[in-house]
Amino acid sequence: MGHLHRGGVLAAVLTLLLTTAAPAPAAAADRYRNPVSAGFADTFADPAVVRGDDGLWYAFGTSDPLRVGERQAHRVPIARSADLVDWTYVGDAFAPDQRPSFAAPGAAFWAPDVRRVAGRWVMYVTVTDTTVSGDTFDTAIGAATAPTPAGPWTFADTPVVAPRPGGGGGYLWTIDPSQFTDSDGRSYLY
What we know:
- The protein is of the alpha+beta class.
- It has helices at residues 2-19, 28-31; strands spanning 48-51, 57-60, 77-81, 88-92, 109-117, 120-127, 140-146, 154-155, 179-181, 187-189.
- It has a 4-stranded antiparallel beta sheet, with no helix packed on it. A 4-stranded antiparallel beta sheet has the order 5-6-7-8, with no helix packed on it. A two-stranded antiparallel ribbon has the order 9-10.
- Belongs to the glycosyl hydrolase 43 family.
């Protein structure tokens, strides 16, 4: 009988715990706010942030629609801030028809990495589809330059890292570039 009593007590405790559990957590949108893009976008993926020569901060995002329901992707949206708190959308780095010569017409530009290199601004960016093959995901790393972080941005006609065929067919993912300059002055692209 003692065994049954302990089982009954355990069941009662479990029932009590389950019925008095904390309320369900709020939806993620209610708990978190993206401080960079909240004023102009629902999403601002893969951001890169630099300080311009004018003392303002510039943020660059992956090519995506800025708002839920928007059907057109922005081509590397740019935002600007004086204080890293309040951000304003200033436009896209690239016009809808602007792309490097090696990019397929429907290519998107992902994960921009923007740096000041030798007196000019350089953006390294994933190009999601190229004219190298019929594959729709033969990614490459492209580069564009501009006199200021706000542009105008001009693509180089050749990729910095060309699409790389995989051993079993298809292409290796060549995405998300990040430039690094070592203490000896040598530059690398990861």
